[in-house]
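User: For a teaching handout, I'd like to show students what a predicted protein-ligand complex looks like in token form. I'll give you the sequence and the SMILES for S-adenosylmethionine. Please answer with just the structure.
Assistant: Understood, here is the input followed by the structure.
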Amino acid sequence: MNENIFGKVDQYISDLLAPEDQILKDTIKSIDEEGLPQISVTPNHGKMLQVMAILSNAKRILELGTLAGYSTIWLARALPENGQLITLEVDQHHSDVARKNIENAGLSDKVDFRVGKAMEILPQLIENNEGPFDLIFIDADKPPYTEYFEYALKLSRPGTVIICDNVIREGKVLDENTSDERVKGVQRFNKMLQQNKNVTATIIQTVGVKEHDGIAIAVVNRS
Ligand SMILES: C[S@@+](CC[C@H](N)C(=O)[O-])C[C@H]1O[C@@H](n2cnc3c(N)ncnc32)[C@H](O)[C@@H]1O
């Protein structure tokens, strides 16, 4: 099999169904210009997030890991007029870059930026009764994914969709002797997902223009 087939097909799907407009292209450009890492979701994954937001009729979205606001734009574009997205980011510079990109996208009235460690902001969201959210996208640092998910559950209602990126890590999750803290973090997370009775969940493997990985999708049970 042509080893580039996954990348080529990913590009084919993006061209068909997830073409980037100038705002998304400028957002990706800002990442290089501002010295941020190119670790945003791909166009196809951005579109998938948008489809999930529409599917779940999301009016309130929570995102962990803003970076330059690329996934934020895909998600916020699915919100209705009075919809709101809160996005958490530990790095002030990342959040500042994202703020400009969101402004450029005309979405400033829908996006609320919070800067700080997700682990510190999440309990504040609970304390301030800022939930429940209809969709939660977890895409920050990997070691505390299990704890992020537990906070996400506290900020959910029955039917809330929780999506967690990068849970397969090029298949390294199969290595039980790994010393990589990110891999260990998602291994612990995936095991928790298996045992969690509050959600119905699965993991979809992803291949394409980025390395082989996986996305966990969970829905909070209705009873
Ligand atoms: C993979 S990037 C997010 C990409 C973004 N969701 C997108 O697709 O456009 C992860 C982001 O999480 C941020 N991050 C890392 N540790 C964090 C923490 N403890 N709390 C909040 N954000 C964190 C990083 O600074 C980085 O900007």
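For the handout, you might add this sentence: Residues 39-41, 65-67, 70-71, 88-91, 94, 117-118, 139-141 surround S-adenosylmethionine (CB under 6 Å).
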